[in-house]
Amino acid sequence: MTHASHFLTLADIARHLDATLVGNGQTAVRGLATLKDAGPDQIAFLANRAYLKDLAATRAGAVLLHPDHGESCPAARLELDNPYLGYALLSQLFDPVPARDRPGIHPAATVADSARLGEGVCVAANAVIEPGAVLGKRVVVGPGSVVGADSELGDDTRLHANVTVGHGVVVGKRVILQSGCVIGGDGFGFAHDGAGWHKIAQLGGVVLGDDVEVGSCSSIDRGALGDTRIGRDVKIDSQVQIAHNVQIGDHSALAGCVGIAGSTRVGKHCMLGGGVGLSGHLTLCDGVQVTGMSLVTNSIHEPGVYSSGTGAMANHQWRKSAVRFKQLDDMAKRLSRLEKHRD
Amino acid sequence: MTHASHFLTLADIARHLDATLVGNGQTAVRGLATLKDAGPDQIAFLANRAYLKDLAATRAGAVLLHPDHGESCPAARLELDNPYLGYALLSQLFDPVPARDRPGIHPAATVADSARLGEGVCVAANAVIEPGAVLGKRVVVGPGSVVGADSELGDDTRLHANVTVGHGVVVGKRVILQSGCVIGGDGFGFAHDGAGWHKIAQLGGVVLGDDVEVGSCSSIDRGALGDTRIGRDVKIDSQVQIAHNVQIGDHSALAGCVGIAGSTRVGKHCMLGGGVGLSGHLTLCDGVQVTGMSLVTNSIHEPGVYSSGTGAMANHQWRKSAVRFKQLDDMAKRLSRLEKHRD
Amino acid sequence: MTHASHFLTLADIARHLDATLVGNGQTAVRGLATLKDAGPDQIAFLANRAYLKDLAATRAGAVLLHPDHGESCPAARLELDNPYLGYALLSQLFDPVPARDRPGIHPAATVADSARLGEGVCVAANAVIEPGAVLGKRVVVGPGSVVGADSELGDDTRLHANVTVGHGVVVGKRVILQSGCVIGGDGFGFAHDGAGWHKIAQLGGVVLGDDVEVGSCSSIDRGALGDTRIGRDVKIDSQVQIAHNVQIGDHSALAGCVGIAGSTRVGKHCMLGGGVGLSGHLTLCDGVQVTGMSLVTNSIHEPGVYSSGTGAMANHQWRKSAVRFKQLDDMAKRLSRLEKHRD
Q1: Which pathway does it operate in (chains A, B, C) (predicted)?
Q2: Which pLDDT does position B33 carry in this prediction?
Q3: Domain with CATH 3.40.1390.10 in chain C
Q4: CATH architecture of A103-306
Q5: What is the average pLDDT score of chain A?
């Protein structure tokens, strides 16, 4: 269910968002909801014209919207140029999670004597902080999470439950690691002697910049020699795999189930759709977008949108196209022959 | 190895499955196996004509099968209309897992004072039950699993090891959560201010219906505002990612590595093959089947089987087809020109 | 950062690698790095001609290389026929992980009375060893990891943090399980009664051969009746899903995000690229390679390289090809008509 929370007055919210309030500043709301679902004690937002139809009938106590839509609003309103950004900033005020943090070390946690913890740190039950780890101020380590030897977590970083940070990993400030993710597992490196495999010890680390988020059950492997590097403000969804020595530029966003092979470099402000795969040792320049489930096997040097694959269709029709796909080269040659014959 | 178990007589089994026994009811078996592998103290089943060839030579102590195949059975037999269903029901009798449950709270578990536990609950070592959580009767929480604040688990629900259920998640009755899965991690939501990302706090929850199963290392994210909703009797395999505000209809089944983007609605009795990807904000009607690794980018309003992609072929041939795929539009135009020229 | 470590003399290293040293055997190095990054107290290697350009300018204290490149080396050198293998063996000497192992059972671990532990076993904080489990000599169980009832771990096997090994799983010697992986979750098996699903209890186990490695957040499901079997020296990357009753032959390697459906058999010395999907009940012979993100829906009986899909291209061009893909069968028929007409 949507989590109720404390009450905020519209005046406070307008101040916080630097928005123009049209309505009674003393009106208090206790949560956020969509235009359709919001009640009188909730605030809604209009950030997408597709939902304009819901504005007239909304029961919301107030609405965040662009000044252009102010006139059509039946309720109190907060006008600002980027209502979606306003919604984001406001949502953080209603987040019930921080309120639950209990500074201190839970008696059922295990913290090595040589670990260094900043003020206001919260270490939950059954968390493990290994020797030499350094936790900044107000770091939160959730239940069952493990911080490896000699790793560093920056101020205000939060590990949810059952997160694993390996040894020698450097995590920036305000980083959020969702439950079940693993930062610093070994990269996939082996040498073949003609008969079988010999492990290449992965001696590098992982460096996560400030404001990075990593989703549930995602994995970022440590480097073979140098580090795997995730830039500032990079957002990584759930079930993502990032291999050893990959580098991701600042502000890039990776959707769920993305897989990036070893040593590939992704630029800044890139966006990879769900299930995208990048081969190893590639370079993607800044501003590249790749649509869902595309496979990229060559470097990309021009910003823009890239795709591969085929759209879904009825299976009985798809079967015909799939068979013809295997005949494509033959078809092309026959086409050329016909053209020659015509001339 | 296959787990031996207690002995059951054929008479007991016939009664449990409502099957017709042909043979000695006092014969006892201690486990299930295939027609090929079963020994005299095991029971086998014939649910697929492909295995009919193994029936004559089976050493099984008894066989579950359809009456049509009774005559060909060299051993004692239990006849029933749906032998595969019979196998399923019988397999549960031989499952060694429930027998190991130890009602009570392990001394190495951490249970908040404000949590409410029903009778017969088992909380294993190093499990953590956060404040306000409510566990129904006979709930089993495996070692290292975490139940978040204010979450609810219905009667007879089982969390295996190292499972994470976030705060404010509602789980139905008889739900099974396999090890390493994460229910209620944050959805992937951010607003861009032109320079970088601002987190949208994910204020919704997750609701899992009765009889849902979620596989190992799968993740189901919490909603942004409303809840992510998984219907009754939905079966979800391993390594699956379900994004915020997705809705899955009752009795649908999702195979391994499926990824579903935000706010997409899947109907009832749908089946998604392994690695299928669904874009966000789509609607799939009831009774849709999507074959393995297909990408669906548009809503589907007709029941049926859908596919995308191309079948695997020898790489040297595939390279030619892949090159021609990029020339397809040109080929089609040249084909039209030739047709015009012909007339 | 790259992890510094203890010092080794070039004479010791030459002896360990059976390499020919050209230079001062008393020179000591404390770590490995690339030709480009290495300093005087580090050793580098040349295993790929692409990096030959970096050799002349390297500041490395010594270089591992093939005798053919000895003359071009400005530093002390260790000559051997397979420098990449030499790098692998040397990297293990600089691995800081084993040095941190603390034999014994951490007071915050939970070990069942009926578990049997070999000499030199390390069980970390909050690890759980269930009844009947058997751990060989020098086995390491990391923090938060769980070893299920009646499972067996061979000598020198290492579980990193938050690993889950289910009940009745047999793990060989020198196996490495990365953090967050799950071995022995239930396979995905259900019988339909016309209205809904009935669980098929997964009564089989998982058997991992000697020298297997499994990556972060990967899952290997237990068999329905017989076991899921992973052969000797099989290397499995992160985010991989292996379904029930799959069999993988010795020395095969599976890259990240691979998914293999139930009962499929993969031969020996096979290599599956990242994101490859194999349908169920297939057989791949020895020596098969499948390129990244290919879907295999039929058995493969000839060694070689196989592929499916289409390469990435600019989205506006891809849209045209994707539309034409749906018209392929029609195009092929029109082409045939033109050919007939020509004759």
Answers
A1: Bacterial outer membrane biogenesis; LPS lipid A biosynthesis
A2: 95
A3: 2-98
A4: 3 Solenoid (2.160)
A5: 95
pLDDT tier at A2, thresholds 50, 70, 90: very low
Amino acid in position A191:
A
The fold of the A2-98 domain, in CATH, is 3.40.1390
Residues A238-287: tens digit of each pLDDT: 999 999 999 999 999 999 999 999 999 999 999 999 999 999 999 999 99
Mention every residue, 6+ apart, whose C-beta is less than 8 A from residue A142: A124, A127, A158, A159, A160, A161, A162, A163, A179, B146
| pLDDT at residue C52 in the model | 93
What pLDDT shows up at residue C2? 40
List, as ranges, residues 192-211 from B with C-beta within 8 Å of A: 192-193, 195-201, 203-205, 207
- Cα(B267)–Cα(B273) distance, rounded to whole angstroms? 15
Residues of B labelled as active-site residues: 244
B329: left (phi over 0), alpha (psi -120 to 50) or beta: alpha
DSSP string, C98-152: GGG---EE-TT-EE-TT-EE-TT-EE-TT-EE-TT-EE-TT-EE-TT-EE-TT-E
The shortest C-alpha distance from A313 to chain B (Å) reads 5
Helix (H) / strand (E) element for B333: namely: helix B328-342
In this structure, which amino acid lies at residue A266? V
Average pLDDT (C244-269) is 98
Q: What is the residue type of B127?
A: A
Q: Which residues of A fall within a CB distance of 8 Å from C3? A: 167-168, 203-205
For residue C343, pLDDT over 90 is answered with: no
Average pLDDT of C130-138? 98
Subunit contact B309:A315, Cβ cutoff 8 A: no
B213-249: pLDDT as tens digits: 999 999 999 999 999 999 999 999 999 999 999 999 9
Q: Taking the complete model, does pTM exceed 0.90, yes or no?
A: yes
Residue type, B300: I
Please report the ipTM that was assigned to this predicted complex: 0.96
242-271 in chain C: CB under 8 A from chain B: 243, 257, 259, 261
Q: Cα dihedral sign for C55, C61, C64, C67? A: positive
Q: Which amino acid is at C34?
A: T
pLDDT tens digits for B70-122? 999 999 999 999 999 999 999 999 999 998 898 999 999 999 999 999 999 99
Per-residue burial over C173-190, b if 16 or more Cβ lie within 10 Å, else e, is bbbbbbbbbbbbbbbbbb
Report phi then psi at C266, rounded to 5. Answer: -105, 135
C341 is catalytic: no
Q: pLDDT grade, residue B3 (50/70/90)?
A: very low
Q: Of B234-238, C70-74, C317-321, where does the model show the most confidence? A: B234-238
CA atoms within 13 A on the CB side of A272: 35
For chain B, the chains sharing at least 3 beta-carbon pairs closer than 8 angstroms are A, C
Closest Cβ opposite residue A193 in set C82, C92, C108: C82
Best probe of the A interface among B162, B199, B245, by most A CBs < 10 A, is B199
Using the Cβ of C72 and the Cβ atoms of chain B, whether some distance falls under 8 Å is answered with no
For residue C71, give the DSSP letter.
Answer: G
Residues of chain A with CATH 2.160.10.10: 103-306
Query: Cβ of A326 and B317 within 8 Å?
Result: yes
